[in-house]
C-alpha cells in the first residue's frame, strides 16, 4: 500500500458515517414490531479506527496491516483503515486534514516530519488518562523515542519504531575478501582512520568504490558531527552549533572522503552502488537490515554485514535517537479503540516481527533490542546497545521549525559536497541560515 489514497472530507465523512451506522446497528435492535431494544449489558461498541501512516521504502504500513487479524482475535469489534501519505507530504497533509476537521484517529508522529510543530499546534491530544487507567508501563520504550511523543511533559502517543540514528556502517564482505581487507571487528572497536584505511585498499583494487558517507544533516550528518564532538544545535535548541570547531572538523573529514582521499567519485548513489556490489562501505540506519531481507533486494547476490559507526578522534561515536509512532488526534472519533491499537502495534512482539517482515528498524523498546530472537537475526542490534546504552538525544529547535532548519542547513552545505567552498565557510553559512530560522516565532 505505497500509493497515497485520497484523504478528502468526503472520504472522512463516509468513514464516520460507516462507523456511525455500525454503532447504531449495535446499539439499537429493531424487533419485528418496530420496537427498539437495547443490546445486552457489556456488549462492545463497533468502531473503525482511521490511521494515517507513511508510504515508503520501509513499508511500515504494509507490515502493520498484516497484524490486524491478530489484533482482531482480541478486539473483533474494532476495524482498522490505513490511509497512507508519502513522507514528504506528511506534515502539510496532516495540518490540512486537522484544519478541515477530517483527520483520522491516529497519525504518524515522530522525531521529524514536523511532529514537534504538530504537537505544539494541538493536532494531537494526550493519552495520559489511558496510561493511568490501564496502569500501562511506558518504561520499556527508548527514552528518545518516547520523548518524540511528548509535549509539555505529556505523552500523546507511543512509538512503534526507534533506533540509535543513522550510525550503522554496512559492508560488502565479498568485496573486502577479494581485496584482502579484514572486516571491522565484531565488537565494533574501530576508528574513523580504520574505515578510511580499509576503504583505500578496496579502491586500490580498482573494481569498486570504498566508502560514501551520508551527508543529510537530519539523521546521518548529525552522526558525524557528534562523532567528532560537534552538534547541529545547542541542547536548548535556541542556537546553531554547526560552526563550532568540532563540527567543522567533522565536515572537513566528510569532504576529504570524496575530494581528498578519492574513496568515491561523489557523495551520490550510495545505496544503489552498495546494492549493485560496487561499494564496500555504506552508512544508513539499521532499518536496512530488514529492507535487505526483502526478496527484491539485490544484496542477496553477495555477502554483507553491518556494524556500528567507528570512533572519532576523541573516542566519541555519534548517536541521535529517533522514534516514530502514532499519536492520538484531537479530533479522534474513536479514542478508546485507537488506544487499543496503539498499545498493540507498539508491543514487544510486533517490535521484533516488523524486522523479520521488512518493516524497518526494530520497535522502540529496550526489551526488543535485547531480545534473543532479534539478535539471532543480526548481532549488530546487541552491539549497538552495548556501545551506546540508550540512544543520544534529539535537540529539537525551540520554535519547532525542524523541517525548515534541516532544509536550510542541507542547502548551505551542498556547495561543500560539490567542492565549491570550504568547510569553515559552509559551516558559517549553515549556522547563519539556522539562526535566522531560530529567531522566528513558533
Describe the structure.
With 442 residues, this protein is α/β, with parallel strands linked by helices. The chain folds into two domains: 9-162 and 324-376, D-Maltodextrin-Binding Protein, domain 2, CATH 3.40.190.10; 168-320 and 397-438, 3-Layer(aba) Sandwich (D-Maltodextrin-Binding Protein, domain 2). Helix content is 43%, strand content 15%. It is built from 20 helices and 13 strands. It has helices spanning 9-27, 60-66, 68-74, 90-99, 115-120, 128-134, 143-147, 173-178, 192-204, 217-227, 245-259, 270-275, 287-291, 335-345, 348-356, 366-369, 372-377, 380-388, 402-417, 423-438, and strands at 29-30, 36-37, 47-55, 78-86, 106-110, 150-151, 154-155, 157-163, 168-172, 209-212, 279-284, 304-308, 322-328. A five-stranded mixed beta sheet has the order 4-3-5-13-8, with helices on both faces. A hairpin with a 5-residue loop joins strand 1 and strand 2. Helix 10 crosses helix 11. The longest helix has 19 residues, at 9-27. Residues 1-43 have low confidence and may be disordered.
Summarize the structure in short.
The protein is of the alpha/beta class and 442 residues long. The protein has helices at 9-27, 60-66, 68-74, 90-99, 115-120, 128-134, 143-147, 173-178, 192-204, 217-227, 245-259, 270-275, 287-291, 335-345, 348-356, 366-369, 372-377, 380-388, 402-417, 423-438, and strands at residues 29-30, 36-37, 47-55, 78-86, 106-110, 150-151, 154-155, 157-163, 168-172, 209-212, 279-284, 304-308, 322-328. The radius of gyration is 24 Å and the shape is globular.
Per-chain topology:
Elements: H1 9-27, E1 29-30, E2 36-37, E3 47-55, H2 60-66, H3 68-74, E4 78-86, H4 90-99, E5 106-110, H5 115-120, H6 128-134, H7 143-147, E6 150-151, E7 154-155, E8 157-163, E9 168-172, H8 173-178, H9 192-204, E10 209-212, H10 217-227, H11 245-259, H12 270-275, E11 279-284, H13 287-291, E12 304-308, E13 322-328, H14 335-345, H15 348-356, H16 366-369, H17 372-377, H18 380-388, H19 402-417, H20 423-438
Parallel strand pairs: 3-4, 3-5, 10-11
Antiparallel strand pairs: 1-2, 5-13, 6-7, 8-13, 9-11, 9-12
Helix pairs in contact: 10-11, 19-20
Amino acid at each position: 500500500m505505497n500509493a497515497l489514497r485520497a484523504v478528502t472530507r468526503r472520504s472522512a465523512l463516509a468513514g464516520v458515517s460507516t462507523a456511525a451506522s455500525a454503532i447504531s446497528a449495535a446499539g439499537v435492535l429493531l424487533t419485528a414490531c418496530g420496537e427498539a431494544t437495547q443490546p445486552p449489558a457489556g456488549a462492545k461498541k463497533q468502531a473503525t479506527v482511521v490511521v494515517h501512516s507513511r508510504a515508503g521504502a520501509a513499508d511500515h504500513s504494509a507490515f502493520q496491516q498484516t497484524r490486524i487479524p491478530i489484533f482482531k482475535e482480541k478486539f473483533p469489534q474494532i476495524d482498522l483503515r490505513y490511509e497512507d501519505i508519502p513522507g514528504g507530504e506528511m506534515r502539510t497533509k496532516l495540518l490540512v486534514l486537522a484544519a478541515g476537521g477530517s483527520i483520522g484517529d491516529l497519525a504518524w508522529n515522530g522525531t521529524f516530519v514536523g511532529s514537534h510543530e504538530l504537537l505544539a499546534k494541538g493536532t494531537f491530544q494526550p493519552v495520559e488518562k489511558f496510561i493511568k487507567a490501564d496502569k500501562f508501563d511506558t518504561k520499556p520504550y527508548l527514552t528518545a523515542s518516547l520523548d518524540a511523543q511528548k509535549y509539555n511533559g505529556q505523552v500523546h502517543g507511543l512509538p512503534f519504531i526507534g533506533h540509535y540514528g543513522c550510525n550503522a556502517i554496512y559492508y560488502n564482505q565479498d568485496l573486502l575478501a577479494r581485496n584482502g581487507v579484514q572486516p571491522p571487528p565484531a565488537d565494533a572497536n574501530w576508528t574513523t582512520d580504520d574505515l578510511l584505511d580499509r576503504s583505500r585498499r578496496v579502491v586500490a583494487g580498482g573494481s569498486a568504490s570504498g566508502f560514501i558517507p551520508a551527508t543529510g544533516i537530519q539523521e546521518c550528518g548529525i552522526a558525524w558531527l557528534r562523532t567528532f564532538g560537534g552538534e547541529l544545535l545547542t541542547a536548548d535548541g535556541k542556537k546553531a552549533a554547526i560552526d563550532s570547531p568540532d563540527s567543522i572538523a567533522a565536515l572537513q573529514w566528510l569532504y576529504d572522503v570524496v575530494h581528498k582521499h578519492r574513496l568515491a567519485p561523489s557523495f551520490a548513489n550510495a545505496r544503489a552502488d552498495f546494492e549493485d556490489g560496487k561499494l564496500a562501505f555504506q552508512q544508513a540506519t539499521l532499518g536496512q537490515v530488514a529492507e535487505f531481507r526483502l526478496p527484491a533486494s539485490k544484496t542477496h547476490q553477495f555477502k554483507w554485514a553491518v556494524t556500528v559507526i567507528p570512533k572519532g578522534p576523541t573516542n566519541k561515536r555519534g548517536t541521535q535517537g529517533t522514534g516514530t509512532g502514532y499519536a492520538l488526534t484531537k479530533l479522534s472519533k474513536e479514542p478508546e479503540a485507537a488506544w487499543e491499537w496503539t498499545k498493540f502495534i507498539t508491543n514487544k512482539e510486533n517490535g521484533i516481527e516488523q524486522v523479520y517482515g521488512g518493516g524497518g528498524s526494530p520497535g522502540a523498546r529496550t526489551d526488543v533490542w535485547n531480545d534473543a530472537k532479534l539478535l539471532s537475526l543480526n548481532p549488530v542490534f546487541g552491539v549497538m546497545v552495548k556501545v551506546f546504552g540508550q540512544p543520544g538525544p534529539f535537540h529539537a529547535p525551540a520554535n519547532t521549525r525542524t523541517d525548515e532548519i534541516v532544509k536550510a542547513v542541507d542547502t548551505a552545505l551542498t556547495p561543500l559536497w560539490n567542492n565549491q567552498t570550504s568547510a569553515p565557510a559552509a559551516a558559517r553559512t549553515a549556522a547563519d541560515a539556522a539562526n535566522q530560522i531560530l529567531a522566528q516565532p513558533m
